[in-house]
Amino acid sequence: MKKVLMAAIAGLAVGFSSVAIADDSYPSKSITYVIPYNPGGESDVTARFQEQFWKDVTGQDVVIQYKPGAGGATAWSQLGGFDADGYTIMNVNFPHAILQPSMKDVGYQTEDVIPAYVFHYTPDAIVVRADSPYQTLQDLIDFAKENPGALTFGGSGTNSANHLAAVRISEMAGIKTTYVPFSGSAPSMAAVLGGQIGAGMTYTTQGVKAGDQVRVLAIATEERVDIFPDVPTFKELGFDYVAGAYRGVTLPKDTPTEVREKLSDIIGQINAIPAFQQQMQENGYVLVDVPSSDMEAWIEERRADYAAGIEILRGN
Amino acid sequence: MLEALLNALSPGNLVLALLGVIAGTMIGALPGLSATMAVAVLVPFTFTMEPSSGLIVLGAIYTGAIYGGAYSAILVNTPGTPAAIATAMDGFPMAKRGDGDLAVTLSCLGSVAGGLVGALALLFLAPPLSKIALAFGPVEYFWLAIFGLSLIATLSRGATLLGLIGGAIGLILSCVGSAVVGGDVRYTFGQTALLGGIPVIPALIGLYCVPVLIDMVIRPEAHLEQRAERMAGFRLIEALGLMWRSKFNVVRSALIGTGVGIIPAAGGSVAGLVAYSEARRSSRNSDDFGKGAHDGIIASEASNSATVGGGFIPTLVLGIPGTPPDAIILGALLVQGIRTGPQLFTQQSDIVFTFTFGLIIATLLMLPTGLVIGRYAYKLIVSIPKTALVPAIAFLTFVGAYAIEANTVHVLIMVVLGILGWLAARVGLEASPIVLGLILGPIAEAGFVQGWLIGGAQGDRLGMFFGRPISLAIIALTILTLVSSGIFKRAKQPKEVA
Fold first, then answer.
1. Exposed/middle/buried for A256, CB within 10 Å: 0-12, 13-18, 19+?
2. Is B331 in Cβ contact with A39 (below 8 Å)?
3. Is A64–B44 a contact, with Cβ atoms under 8 angstroms apart?
4. What is the CATH T-level fold of the domain A23-121+245-315, as seen in this structure?
5. Cβ B340–A73 below 8 Å, yes or no?
6. Rounded to 5 degrees, what are φ and ψ at B482?
């Protein structure tokens, strides 16, 4: 400890205010966990789930802070400005962090926000109101085929995961639909429940929240999930489509590798706790484990997966 | 239900409700520290509690913080939360003339009355009332925002043109950043810091508080006039008498607050302003509004506190948060393993009822806490010399603007808007229309574009905007507001002269 202190003082004396010390005891104090969205959404709720187990795993506290704006871009463009010491971590979402920089200048590049760990995804799901005439995905597609452009999909944001999903699914099904962006998942679900839009292009988690007020027509997972045993996957229905919003935890780009790997371990350990897993699954989240060591390959895989959809969005 | 009432009345829960109200009131009283933040900071502490106790604490903090916003509105002309914008309009003039203690007591009584109406609506009518939230589609939000903007005509007290200019400035400010609908990046001048737009709370602090601070420095007289004949008291009997005379105003404002609270995204600021302008329109002394009318404070506070109970209705019944603090509480519910939705009222009704009774108890506890804290807040502001008051408030404004998202850019925005706001006040441009434009602009824009897209998909844009009953009702209200504000009368006058 003394050595560390000396090193810190020496570092300060030389004038490196943000010198990062490879510290075996990371984390040795509380960590600030920045959520780039408003409270109450998926990013916040999953961070809150993690928060409960954080102290058991690390012995330290985590403080959740919100920096909403521009679909996450406000926070991600500021990530580089934090000390690269591992004590400010940030939630990062995909496809958002690949989509946004490839559509507009949003003040950051995907390379600036590479996660230390990707810990779950919320599978895409098409939901309709319980009394909707669409009983199956096929009903929806048939309607859209007969009435090009008349089917409205409501989702959260423009150039977002929901927008990309609407574009990709419409393309696969060979239909023309109208995507209506809302300022978040909650208002888009309100429009589904209120009958203002035809269907919600959203996540399984929203289907769980709305309960029996809605019917989930299809979900974009590899296999059916326990929470919706009767809902078919897109794969079963003949669409090779597994997608959703992947969420990870990221650090400033210059963070030392050891710290990055330690954070990756921490998130991985929380992901392995049965009580955490149960909470996540009951609310519609699907756990994945992409540690820091596999991240490069995973990002490339994501880029390839989104490429065609991004082309269509650019053409719009 | 009785069991839930007894559970809410357990000593532990009572203490939690009291602590929650005290903490909330104090946080809300500081300019910039909003109800949203108070709830967000304290959520983790509720994880270890019983679900119903945790919810009672959060509800109590939320109620307290919405009320606490009234103090800074009355005493420093700075709405601590957007919900208290209308409170400042008459609260500050009252405080200026030496009636700050009465204004604080009135705001407390108004809040308790409004909070009770909202909580009772939640207790007895939540499932049916939640349908109101769903009846509001994009087009209804668009018209609601237009209606809100039309209130500028009422609020600008004769100087309609200046009010409209202020509203337009607010609307332009609201365009800054990346558009929710369409994602276009506007007016950021290449600054990524502006991508997220102009944040409302720093703008509120800047436009309201900074001009007050500048005036305090450049003017020699005391910040608030002090009545020499006696020290600040509660003036409770006097306030109760005023409340009784304004009973229709109280009930109307509380109902407006409950109703607006149910509509997600509208929130306390809209409720306060609508209730305020209704109170003014139906008052026999409407000319007193803006100069320290008791009914103005009562209307604003009764309605913004009623949004608390109202906002919980869509949150708990539909899983759609009515206000930003509701969104955090919804997240906390999920962590506690509580599933919102209609089934919550049938399957886990004990939690809902314990929570609602907790909210009612917290609202009642607000009466003694609010009166006591308010009295000391007033004494403090009146008796501290300006040389100490100005730096203290200035410090708080910086903390408030920074703390929301730990963002130094927000502090800069606050300072710049503050100086501009002070300059604008020199030429008669008030803060309220600008803030109204800033808050309502995004709601109007999103509603319009969404309505346009949906109308286009259905091949009936005209019917989308002008063919829906609720929309038509809001349009009618807007026209009524404009006509009764006398804005058209003024337009005719020059002709007569010519």
1. middle
2. yes
3. yes
4. D-Maltodextrin-Binding Protein; domain 2 (3.40.190)
5. no
6. -65, -45
A269 touches chain B (CB under 8 A): no
- H or E stretch including A289? strand A286-290
Nearest CA in chain A to B453: A180
Closest Cβ opposite residue A196 in set B138, B179, B342: B138
H helices of A194-291, in order, are: 204-210, 257-271, 274-282
Q: What is the four-CA torsion angle of A60, A66, A71, A74, rounded to 10 degrees? A: -90
So where are chain B's domains? Answer: 2-487
Q: Which residue of chain B has the CA closest to A51?
A: B44
Domains of chain A: which residue ranges?
23-121+245-315, 122-219
Is the CB of residue A101 less than 8 Å away from at least one CB of chain B? no
Distance from CA of B271 to the nearest CA of A (A): 19
Q: Do A175 and A151 form a contact (C-beta atoms < 8 A)?
A: yes
Task: Tell me the CA end-to-end span of chain B in Å, nearest whole number.
Answer: 70
Share of chain A above pLDDT 70, in %: 92
Tokens of B22: 């005290």
**Mean per-residue pLDDT of chain A:** 90
**How many residues in chain A?**
316
Residue B346 pLDDT? 75
Residue B434 CA to residue B446 CA, distance in Å, equals 19
Which residue blocks in B319-385 are alpha helix, DSSP H?
324-335, 342-347, 349-383
Cβ pairs bridging A and B (under 8 Å): 173
Over residues B192-220, mean pLDDT: 88
pLDDT in tens, B146-171: 998 988 887 776 678 888 999 999 99
Contact call for B328 and A104, based on CB within 8 A = no
- Give the pLDDT band of residue B228 (cuts 50, 70, 90): low
Say if A77 is an interface residue toward chain B (CB within 8 Å).
yes
Question: What's the pLDDT score for residue B9?
Answer: 84
Domains A23-121+245-315 and A122-219 share a fold: yes
The DSSP element (H or E) to which A123 belongs, if any, is: strand A115-129
Q: Of B334, B408, B471, which to mutate for an interface test with A (greatest number of A Cβ within 10 Å)?
A: B334
- Tens digit of each residue's pLDDT (9 = 90 or more) over A75-128: 999 999 999 999 999 999 999 999 999 988 888 999 999 999 999 999 999 999
Residues 140-159 of A with CB under 8 A from B: 149-152, 157-159
How confident is the model over B58-102, as pLDDT tens digits?
Answer: 999 999 999 998 998 999 888 877 788 899 999 999 998 888 889
Q: In the CATH hierarchy, which fold is given to the domain comprising A122-219?
A: D-Maltodextrin-Binding Protein; domain 2 (3.40.190)
Of B183, B320, B457, which is closest to A149 when you measure between CB atoms?
A: B457
A5 token code pair: 């202190």
CA distance B266 to B260: 6
Give the model's confidence band at B343: pLDDT under 50 very low, under 70 low, under 90 confident, else very high.
Answer: confident
